[in-house]
Design a protein that fits this description.
InterPro entries: LolA/LolB/LppX, OM_lipoprot_carrier_LolA-like. This protein is α+β, with helices and mostly antiparallel strands. Helix content is 23%, strand content 43%. It has three helices and twelve strands, in the order αββββββααββββββ. A twelve-stranded mixed sheet has the order 7-8-9-10-11-1-2-3-4-5-6-12, with helices on one face.
């Protein structure tokens, strides 16, 4: 009888701890979303690494779901629906409707909009940071798992690690600046690239 009682108490305590952890994780990600999802937008530097693409560094401007990412090889515009990718080496612009994973690979802040769509939340602490852990509980998400490192004081993320199938991609973020961004920078303007070949892949 005593063993059964202990098992029940342990189970209840575990449920309570899990609920508290999930509540803290939700609080952290909501505050982080407020910081980086400010109405006027923001900009930052980023470095992306994966075994498939190697290392890519650049700058990014964001505003809601929109983003503009620039590297030494490409420029990507996303207006919330359509993505334009300009490759400097070929002078081509590919027009696509990107998947969740594709948006995430170029815009590390996509998580502020997708975490509510079928992800289980957890959080641990490490030094001056929270480490958010998101696990997808639906096959509809192209991202299976994410770790997001968030500063405890500023609630700005400094690193994001995400898994798609068995492949991991790590994104480091520096020099985050809350700063108003004009809407026109999130759409491709053919006048700026008059000789580029536009290829519609939608």
């Amino acid at each position: 009888m005593k063993k059964i009682f202990l098992i029940i108490v342990t189970a209840l305590l575990s449920l309570g701890c899990n609920a508290q952890n999930a509540a803290l994780a939700k609080k952290v990600i909501e505050k982080t979303s407020q910081v980086i999802g400010r109405p006027g937008g923001a900009k930052a530097n980023f470095t992306v690494f994966s075994k498939k693409i190697g290392t890519i560094s650049g700058t990014i401007a964001i505003k809601g779901t929109k983003f503009n990412a620039k590297t030494n090889k490409a420029i990507v515009w996303y207006n919330g629906k359509t993505q334009w990718s300009y490759l400097k080496s070929t002078n081509e612009v590919n027009v696509t409707t990107p998947t969740q994973a594709q948006r995430m690979s170029m815009n590390p802040y996509t998580f502020i909009n997708i975490w509510k769509s079928g992800f289980k939340l957890g959080v641990t602490t490490k030094g001056q940071n929270y480490i958010l852990h998101l696990i997808s509980n639906t096959s509809k998400n192209s991202i299976s798992e994410m770790y997001i490192t968030v500063n405890k004081s500023s609630y700005s993320p400094s690193a994001i690690k995400m898994r798609q199938n068995k492949d991991w991609t790590t994104i480091s973020i520096t020099n985050f600046q809350p700063k108003n961004q004009p809407d026109q920078i999130f759409s491709f303007n053919s006048k700026d690239f008059p000789s580029a070949e536009v290829i519609d892949l939608r």
